[in-house]
User: What shape does this take?
Amino acid sequence: MNDVHNEKGTNKSLSLFFKSSFIVSVVIIVISSILLYFTFTFDIVPPILNRGIQPATFPKALLILIITLTLLTYFISLKKPWKSEKKLPNSFYITLLSFVVFITVSKFLDFFLGIALLSIIVSYFWGERRVAYLIIVSIIFPLIVFVFFETILGLRFPPGIITNLYYG
Amino acid sequence: MENLGLIFAPLFSYKLLIVLFFGTIFGLILGVLPGLGPTTGGALILPFTMTLDPLSAIVLLTAIYCAGTYGGAITAILINTPGTPAAAATCLDGYPLAQKGEAGRALGMATVSSVIGGIASVIVLIFFAPLLANLAYEFGQPEYFALAIFGLTMLASIGEGSPIKNLIAGAFGILISTVGKDFMTSIDRFTFGINELTEGIGFIPVVVGLFAISEMLTQSTLINQIFNRVALKAVKLPSIDDYKKTWKTIIRSSGIGSFIGVLPAEGGTVASLIGYAEAKRWSKKPEDFGKGSIEGIAGAEAANNAATGGAMVPTLALGIPGSATTAVILTGLIIHGVRPGPDLFREQPEFLYGIFGSMLIANILFFVLGFFGAKIFARITLVPNKLLWPMIFAVSVCGTYSLNQSIIDVWLMLLFGVIGFFMRRYGFSVVPVIIGLILGELVEGTLRQSLVIFDGNWLMFLQRPIVLTFFVLSLIALSFPLIKRKK
Assistant: This one.
């Protein structure tokens, strides 16, 4: 009987680690701790030039505050658990992936092509199948935005295989 | 007060009238579209304002603010989805009334109470902002530090998210403001060897990421959602009987909204929730609330629009944003080289009163456009998300890139989009990040300059009455959610 009880207790404590409040708190604390570590690498101003406090003091105080408040949030969540979130659908991951595609294509190939590709991926995987609409969303609309920014705001977009054609 | 006549100046400027007209239409469209709203829209349009003179630019942003706040009611009433967070309370009675076949009556009441709330708040702005600005002449660095701290502690009581989560988000916003060269010593902080980061992280990538891109990710999880739309024949002006039922509620909510708006960091969302709760508390028929009460619609809508003028008071008088959208307007002012604060009232009254007058006209314009065009604006929600959001992405990317012509800004925008999505998913509001980012430099700068003045003696803060007052107010703001919970 005791074994069964212990097992149940173990499961309960294990499930605690998989709760979103725990995971989110850990993520915040880990990132904050890494950033806190970086604040110790900031240059130190000699006392004669130091005005008030060292440049690292303020970010350090903020990060300690964030860590403290996160711990507080976590302990409160033990009494009052966060509402459980639904599993994220595939469309979310595809949209997220399209961001990666955009970054890669805009960095190595072309900024405009990156926007067009993201638009077509998002529109298609969100359910649009009509070719005319896909063309409007991925080519015609970005082209209008591109020309508008280029002519009205005098913006020069980063070079790329398509942008270079436009600029001649 | 001798400058009051300047309020009418925008009426005689065809350029400002055109800007107001388009700003109001754009604001209504943004307000109607769930997930967008005046904050995101204002951030997206900021780069375009660079082609305008400072007054036209700010008039455009304020018109978007006023009309966008009202526009949220159209979707709240017709599809039970608030176009803006400030319209969330409007859903409670707007949609049930629309389901009873009285969508026109519900929208009519929302339109009239929004306009009355909006105009009342501009009157508060006109009279209260110069007074607050005069008071600010007494402020030195320690007082500004205490004021900024008060603004940040107010984050604990904003409507969305838990108080502690809001404070974490606010601290995160301030932390973002520390990225780049330290403004006092030129020492790099959190730049990780990336040259583009030495100038710091701009406001636009953060705000567009946290609002537009995170909303795009949220919409990606809702692609199968179906809205039940209620048919709208025409917007109807409230009847005499409706006016009799609601006039007290409208006046009360206009006062509540204006007051809440003036408080730093608070905005239309909090105002509408309190306005709605008070309308219910004072109603002769509280049992009708949630079932299509006309008083409920009036209470929420008068309050959220009243917060627009109120929120402009600390923004213009002190440079402390009264809400997320006024944080965008504040950025617009800074981009155009206008420094908010008491000097602005003394040196550029025509600029300020031009804004006041334009806000009054914007309220009248959205009344006319909302009354005759609500049916058309409601149709905008028919644009499917699968077409709308890729287009918003294209505008977001180009808009973010345009300010500094920096690809790093675009990547930061995407990063903050992802951060914003997970923040919202786990109950953290993104509004405090924006307020924290805006106030960050002020907090750190005034703290360090104060310590120089005080020769490093922290206790000197407590010897200044205004500082002490703000610290006490900050403590009250921090403990307010606890008191509310105990009640």
Remarks:
- Confidence is low (pLDDT under 50) at residues 1-11 of chain A.
